[in-house]
Amino acid sequence: MNTRVIVACVVVAAAVGACRRSPVESPNARVDELFAEWNKPDSPGCSVGISRNGTVVYEQGYGMASLELGVPIRPASVFHVASISKQFTAMSIMLLAQQGKLSLDDEVWKYVPAWADREHRITIRHLLAHTAGLRDVFLLIELASPHVDGVHINDALMRILAHQRGLNFTPGSEFRYNNGGYNLLASIVKRVSGQSLRAFTDANIFKPLGMTHTHFHDDASLIVPNRAWGYHRDAAGLRLARGGGDPGGILGNAGLFTTAGDLLLWEQNFADVRVGDRALVAEMQTPVVLAGGDKSPYGLGLEVGQDHGLKTVGHGGGDPGFGAYVIRYPDRGLAVAVLCNLDNIGFGVGALTRRVAAVYLPDVAPTPPAPAATAAPPKVSLSLEQLQSKAGLYRDAAGENFGRIFVRDGKLMVSLGAGPAGEGFELTPVDANHFVLLGTPVAVEFVPAAAGRPQEIHVTGDGPKPSVSELVTETFKPSSVELRAFAGDYISRELETTYTIRVSDAGLVIQIQGRADIDLTPLVPDTFTGSLVGMVKFSRDSRGGVIGFTVNATDVRGLRFERK
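Below the sequence we write its predicted structure tokens.
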């Protein structure tokens, strides 16, 4: 809270008795206030754990672990924590390196003999740091024909990654968060150690640290005592999240079940090292330097940042039904874990965790409340004409990606992809040309057109470098005769999948065996857009015949299909 807000609060308090807080109110009571809106018998909620120098100072549960059974959240409640899993996968790899069973600078193909791409040098270190350039395997598996029944999902994911010959970028040159890399690391742990990730972490991390309520959930049928179920809120109200929030056996990038208290034991290992050694934990917490000299916001399995000038090390996680965050302030010996079973808290769980930390850091101003939890801050009022001037289709030439800006109900919205205006995220104006995505560090600047240059969008906070997109004119309206030139069968060797493209009234349709059809809408010459595939750009031979196309989606660049 800044000085002006404090002064205003005092003035109002003197006048009407508002903003009153007892001078003896404990930090724990102030934490209770932060979670009061979820601490109800008809609401999911959160489990919170706070420790100072390894000693637990507060543990509390708020809301319900099971709305169906009326079971409240307690400190012993077990949550799926999604991407918080990554640091334990990273530690497993680091321990194997410490044991001399692998090197972080080994190339991936050494442990995955079927790895097709021997041209690019992708190392285990690249996977740990999210700098490998891998395509998003969870999108790839949706773009491929359904995997064969009986094949474990982790094996199916590794097979798809192993068949890829193209990358999104040169290894080491960019930081781009990638779940598939950590799924692959889990498979490497199994191949090198001869144990599943669950067995390895249990023997080498969880038991030594006394994390008795933690495991990698590799068996969906396993009964988990004190389990919290995941929920989602939509226009109709609360409902159980897809699959109850169970990760379905996907491991490495996710799959960890744990408690807030167990995570505090883990956090203390970075100060009082019992698993690994000081050099190992220091390397995990050191931001990676990219090839161009920029510093990544990530170490090896851990996010490294600052909060009001204090160094922070932590990680967040979110999946259907769950949102979680764990953060440590190493210079203050403070660690906070917040595990929630309502995914609508979304980006807000990180800000919520920092607000908890601020209670125990009296010299640190609290992080503003997450928009999901409280009313949004006042907005700058822009006219409909001002908002409409920003609308249109924008192209990020660097990634061959599109995004659409549109106005809905007097609000400026953004959606990924080039399709018609649909679901999107609200952009909140700061002034006439600057907007923010509330609850995130993302800021958007609209740069008006100038001589020889169309209107641009400059985006910061979504990576180590700003991105620039240009407004494009949608003029491609092919005739039915022109569309027929694109019809036919196309194969991707990397996906081991054939797409059949046929002409429709609106443009083209992609048919994939075992999947729903994908409608393609004309965009610019020889280029179409559709759900999942993002941008489909056809190529021609010297005589003008269509010979193939590439798919360029948000995290899948340059996926090639050849005409049969």
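The first strand starts at residue 46 and ends at 52.
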